[in-house]
Structures are given as C-alpha cells and as structure tokens.
Amino acid sequence: xxxxxxxxxxxxxxxxxxxxxxxxxxxxxxxxxxxxxxxxxxxxxxxxxxxxxxxxxxxxxxxxxxxxxxxxxxxxxxxxxxxxxxxxxxxxxxxxxxxxxxxxxxxxxxxxxxxxxxxxxxxxxxxxxxxxxxxxxxxxxxxxxxxxxxxxxxxxxxxxxxxxxxxxxxxxxxxxxxxxxxxxxxxxxxxxxxxxxxxxxxxxxxxxxxxxxxxxxxxxxxxxxxxxxxxxxxxxxxxxxxxxxxxxxxxxxxxxxxxxxxxxxxxxxxxxxxxxxxxxxxxxxxxxxxxxxxxxxxxxxxxxxxxxxxxxxxxxxxxxxxxxxxxxxxxxxxxxxxxxxxxxxxxxxxxxxxxxxxxxxxxxxxxxxxxxxxxxxxxxxxxxxxxxxxxxxxxxxxxxxxxxxxxxxxxxxxxx
Amino acid sequence: xxxxxxxxxxxxxxxxxxxxxxxxxxxxxxxxxxxxxxxxxxxxxxxxxxxxxxxxxxxxxxxxxxxxxxxxxxxxxxxxxxxxxxxxxxxxxxxxxxxxxxxxxxxxxxxxxxxxxxxxxxxxxxxxxxxxxxxxxxxxxxxxxxxxxxxxxxxxxxxxxxxxxxxxxxxxxx
Lengths: 416, 174
Hints:
The complex is a heterodimer of chains A (416) and B (174). Chain A contains 16 helices and nine strands. Chain A is an alpha/beta fold and 416 residues long. In chain B, helix 2 packs across helix 5 (77-95) and helix 7 crosses helix 8 (149-166). Chains A and B meet through helix 1, helix 2, helix 3, strand 1 and helix 4 of A and helix 1, helix 2, helix 4, helix 5 and helix 6 of B.
C-alpha cells in the first residue's frame, strides 16, 4: 500500500530522483499557469485576475479528491501521509506576515523560485529576500520559542474539527471551492473586465466531476480499522502465527531499561486487574479507546517500542491487530501476558535485597478459573505497581529468551 | 529591461490547477510527503551558514537540527524537491520562450523601488513561512489537500493579510 518505502526500494539516489521529478512537475505547472509573473499574482488582491485562487483551489480539491479516493479504495494509507501538524497561532500570525509579504513583494516562495528560474529580476530579489527572512528567523527564534511552540494540536484534521465523516467534509470543501470560483469570476468581470462567458464551457463539466466524486466518497466512506486489517491480514497474520511479534517478558524488560529506546506499555485489561497489579509505567487502555489513542501513538518518535499486554494473549492480540492496521510500527505482544510476566518475575528470584519485605508477593492460584485472559495470581491487596514484580531489575534474573524485536525506523516525513 | 506587455499565453487556470492537483497527489501517493519550497531554501541557507560559522550552527537549537555535527543540511528530500521546482520552472519558461531578464512591476514605481519591495516582501515571506512552519506550497496547498486544520487557518490568514494590506500599497501595482 502506498506511500512506498522509497529508500528501501530504490536506494537514496532513486528516492532523490523521484523527489526531483515531483519538484520538476510542480515548477513546470507553476510556470505555465503564469505564476512567474508578479503582476499576475498581485492582481489577485485587486480582484482583477483571480488566477491564484483558481489554480490553488483547483489544485487543492483535485489532490484532495484523488488522495481520499485512493484511501477509500485501500490503495493509500492516510496514516502515513504527512498532514501538517497544527500550531494554530504561530500558523495564523505567520500567515498574516506572509500575506503582507505577498502583496508587497508579489510572490510566495515557490512562485519566486520559478520567477528567478525564468530570469525575472524581481523574482531574484524576492528569493534573496526570502533567504534573508529565513536567516533572521533562524537567528531570532530563540527569543520567542514559547510562542513558536504554542497552541499545538498535533495532527488535527477538518473532519475531526467538525465531527463530520471525511466524505462529507470533502464534499463541503469542493462546494466551497466551486462557490469561490464562481465569485472569483464575477469579481474578474467587475474589476478586470473579463467576460466569464468566453471561458471554456469544459469547466462546468470539470466542476460536475468533482462534485460527483465527492458524493461517491460520502457513500463509500473511509476504511475502518477492521477494513484496514482485512487488507493487510494476509501479510501480517503469519507474523502472529509464527510468533514473531510475541516478546518474552525478559526481552521487554531489557528494552524498558534501554535508554536508547522509548518503551510504551499498553495494558489492555479491566481496571480491576490493573489496580491489582500492573507493570510500572504501563498505561491502562481498552480496545474501545485504542482508535483515539492511536493518533497520539503515531506521533511518537521512531525509536519507540510498543508492547501490548493482557492477562494472557487474546485481547493483546486484538489490540496488536488494531494498532498494526493503523500503521503503527514496532508493536509487540507481551508473550504469555501478565501471567507469564509474574511467572518470570514473581518467583523465588524476585525476592531481592531491595524488595520491601513488608510487601506481600502475589501468589499463583492453585485452582485458577478456567478460560483465557484471566489473571491466575492472587493479590493480597490492590497495590498496582508497588509489587516488586512491577519493577524487576534485569540483572537479578538470568533468563534465556529468543530475541524478537527488530526496531524499524519510520520513514521521516515532514512539511516544507 | 522593460515591462512585458505581450499577450498572455498561460494555460487556463483550472487546467493548470488540475495538473497541480495531480502532481500534489502523486507526491503524497508515492512519497507520503506534500510539496514545498521554503524548507529547501532554508536548508540551502543553513548549508552556507555551516560553511562560515559551524560553531554558531551548533549553538542554535533550530539550526542544530538541520546541520549539527556531521549532518549535511542538503541531504534532505525537500532540498531536492526545491531544486526540481527551479528546474521545472526553467524548462517550462524555455519551452514557452519566457526566460528573459525583465522586472515585472506596476506602472507607477521605478524598477529600483520594485526590487527593494521584492526584497522586503520576500523577507516577510521567509520569516512568516518559518514561523508558520511552511509556505504557501508546504502549508496551504499540501496541508489543505489533506485537510489539516492548521493549514486551512494559515491559508485564510495569508489571503486575509494580503487583502488587508492591498489597498494601502495599491500604488505598487496599479
């Protein structure tokens, strides 16, 4: 499924060749649309020539429709598409400053590059100005860092803001853009003396197609976690069956103590079991809460290892499927769950010198209730992470295990 | 070096926009990233700064990220993409015979004023683009297409800023 791991597929050179080709296409389109001409760009702000609005919003709605169609068809993974993170106020203030720069200077950074490439001297001065502005920013950002990092909302999208399905939001954006095109043409008629009747009629057909696709997207909907699992099940189910992703408690412990790896422990059990006992720093969550949590987890740094656990493995395996379907990488299941953890760390070896003698140890039940994913230890009290087994010291235990973890570093993506 | 006055031969805006949308979609589909321009210029600049004042780059956190230690600020997809933008513009200009040393300006200002204003406007753009973490391409266009809330707020701010000031600087263009 797209996007593709370009560096792994084509090497660094091949990957850069692709980026060069995309940039080339972008520059080419900007030039043939007239964006190397500052007069044409500035005319936008006097309602004489709405080219900027038309090209930009057509670009946005065409790309949007293609992106979300590809996602709906299961061809593209939206979770791995870079969505600019929202830092609301720095974005708005930066945008206002850029708006001033646009009307004073007559370009934006991308169009000025194309202008400079086609020897427009004002474009060359603008590029030098942009570089100077970036330089000033780099030298001064330390004095307003608090503002620069303020109002952070993460990966926050319009469907989430409005609480609407993606398809409906897409349709709304298309209709808004078409309304703006209509308004823009009226303004050009009034202020620029353009006659909209002379523009190609084909544009009505184009408008119709965009609305049609958007309406289809409303009905098809975007894939759910279960749909996503179905598309990757053939590839991922064998990893479960071959036990490639079930980590031994001792290996998980190694990573918890490894400073170079950030470990996120997700405890998918009842609150009651969690209160009785949980591993230090484990986060209580449930299968229902996972989708919301996944969004935060996807933002974690590349060197993060996720370990999901239940009392045995059944619920943890469900959680693993859900997280993997949402493209989270480096997700593992605690082998044998909390029961196996306690088997390893709550036995005789756990009675170390620094264990609080006053604390009673959990005891294995002699007659555990039958069934899967049930806690098979008895706890004298709901002490949570206060039991020594919640914070075992790796060097107190010599346990042999087969290493399973292969840390995969995500493709770095980012905005320009 | 006079103003261009010949008739426009640019493509229809909706056609150009459709091509732009296809390029942007391909960028997302193939690479997972959108388009950009200011990020590439930023790294070219840091590359030069690192040549002249590497200790300084190592002291400023914002620059350190891009060029600290042995990191080469040019070794980034956005630099390559930005270079592509320049080449694409050049080739399109050559094919349409539009590569000419000219200064596009309003009729009531001198060429020198236009150059000064281009530099000033560029400076504001560069500063604003870094503050907003992306320019018209990297934020508005790319983030807009994948429905980022911040990108849409940013986009309205850019147009708002432009329209708010347009009346007061009308002599520059009209």
